[in-house]
Amino acid sequence: MKIIQTIALLFISFAVNAQLEKVALISVFGDRNLSDNPLETKIYEALMKDSSFNLVPIVNKFDKTIREVFLPQFPFPFLEKSEVVGAEGYPEIKELTRWAKNDWSTTPADDYVSIAAYGIADDNEAIAKSFEIVGNGIDGVMIAYINFNIYDAGGVGPLAKKKVYAYVNIKIFDKAGNRIFKLKERASSDKGVLSVSGIITDLDKVLPMIESASDNLLEDMVKKLPKSLNKMAKKQNPLNKKKAIQLLHLKKGSY
Length: 255
Fold this sequence. Notes:
This protein has 255 residues and is of the alpha+beta class. It is built from 6 helices and 7 strands; from the N terminus they run H-E-H-H-H-E-H-E-E-E-E-E-H.
């Protein structure tokens, strides 16, 4: 109940800036890169390309949770998934993404296309094209992805314990390509694995750690979402109050 109230408060707070009537979730995926460090990326590249490194169940669970648990709490309707992925030309959106010729950097949820929304490098052309392809009067599109990062959780000298952070990222864009909503949360895996000089000694333990971090993340979102959205609402309030006052003056002057 608190989540519903907080999301409603958030969207009332920036309603002056953006009035959304209908939104489409156009992409849900998992990023297979396990480190932000370019040197470590090379180390884990073999794992990224390994077909046994199967993120499909994790990403599909993420997709189901987003659509069934969180989307219904927003104060505007979303198109059904079938209306999005079944739209004529939707699969071809991949050709407009940074991963057009790359099938190993991401794992999309069933039937979805991975569309980048990283902030620094967004698939702007694909995002813009999705409004045309999906249609149905949408005035906003959402991209949700989960990514992972292996980090040091303590150690001495060359010996260290590595654990995994899982991050959820939810973003909404308007027709002009402006990002009008952003949410990011993280959670850690319960267990870790030994590394020597930064190299994990047992790569078979990486996937279970990812599963653990993902499960913890989805559980934590229920607790953290109200606080995160309330914090965002407070950031929006000063600007929106000013705009609301301006609108009020304009309204009074029209009588």
